[in-house]
Specification:
Layout lengths: L6 H17 L15 H17 L4 E7 L3 H7 L5 E6 L9 E3 L7 E10 L10 H7 E11 L10 H6 L6 E4 L15 E6 L2 E7 L7 H14 L9 E3 L7 E2 L5 E6 L3 E8 L1
Parallel strand pairs: 1-9, 3-12
Antiparallel strand pairs: 1-2, 4-5, 4-9, 4-10, 5-6, 7-8, 7-11, 11-12
InterPro entries: 4-oxalocrotonate_decarboxylase (IPR017630), Fumarylacetoacetase-like_C (IPR011234), Fumarylacetoacetase_C_sf (IPR036663), Hydratase-Decarb/MhpD_sf (IPR050772)
GO molecular function, one term: 2-oxopent-4-enoate hydratase activity
GO cellular component, one term: cytoplasm
Length: about 260
């Protein structure tokens, strides 16, 4: 991975992103100031952010794959997926009220989440390896929040912003992978009882386990592996739907049940 940023630049950009996340304000995309910024630079900033969060007492509980569906790639104008880390402070309970006051551009997407029973490491990790290492899957909704002005960004900037990670809610009923066809799960997102998006899990790289394998292989490039016990989200099945206070969101998954939450100021 080719780095162009100095250590000082990485720290400076990390502080910029951390401020925008902590105080919920929009910033210009990082490549405005650093036009040569690479994907590797983005991950260097993200790794610095992760170290800071852990030092502040956050617990790293897993990872997420981002921009894994054609709908999301087209929506955001990027051509390869990304990954981000998840901490315990991003988790919200099923049916809870989620504040939008500390978010910039909140949007929801429904995802299949994997809980791992074995460590996985790349390179060369395959979807078959992922399925063999999975304890169970469950339905989840990710509340993403790009901190960039106008929700406009490029891949290096979004990776530095921890792949727009903000909040997530797991729910429904856990299922073993061998009891499901993970390629053909239908999903529906409803806001205040109206269907706003539908999709099928094959939208995520043909099979959600492919997204997890891709994530493990990116982790290997970063010198990391995926530990047993990790909670991993495989990426949005539909495009991301903007939400605002007063909206009740329910994601209904075929064979996995539903996940619900409401948004407040």
């Amino acid at each position: 991975m080719n780095l162009t940023l100095s250590r000082e630049d990485v720290v400076r950009l990390c502080e910029r992103v951390e401020g925008a996340q902590a105080r919920a304000y929009a910033i210009p995309k990082l490549t405005n100031e650093y036009p040569d910024m690479t994907i590797a630079d983005g991950y260097a900033v993200q790794s610095e952010l992760r170290k800071r969060f852990v030092a502040q007492g956050h617990k790293l509980i897993g990872w997420k794959a981002g921009l894994t569906s054609k709908a999301k790639m087209q929506q955001m104008g990027v051509d390869v997926p990304s990954i981000g880390f998840l901490t315990d402070r991003m988790a919200r309970p099923e049916n809870s009220a989620i504040s939008t006051a500390d978010l910039v551009h909140p949007r929801v997407e429904c995802e299949v989440a994997f809980v791992m029973k074995q460590d996985l490491r790349g390179p060369g990790c395959t979807a078959r390896d992922v399925l063999a290492a999975t304890d169970y899957v469950l339905p989840a909704v990710e509340i993403i929040d790009s901190r960039f002005s106008g929700f406009k960004f490029d891949l290096a900037s979004v990776i530095a912003d921890n792949a727009s990670s903000a909040r997530f809610v797991g729910g429904g009923r856990p299922r073993y992978v061998e009891d499901l066809d993970l390629r053909t799960l239908g999903v529906v997102i409803e806001i205040n009882g109206e269907i706003v998006a539908t999709g099928a899990s094959a939208a995520v790289m043909g099979h959600p386990a492919e997204a997890i394998a891709m994530l493990v292989n990116i982790l290997a490039e970063l010198g990391e592996s995926l530990p047993a016990g990790s909670f991993v989200m495989s990426g949005g099945i539909t495009e991301a739907i903007a939400v605002k206070p007063g909206e009740n969101v329910v994601a209904r998954f075929q064979d996995l049940g539903s996940v619900s939450m409401r948004f407040v100021e």
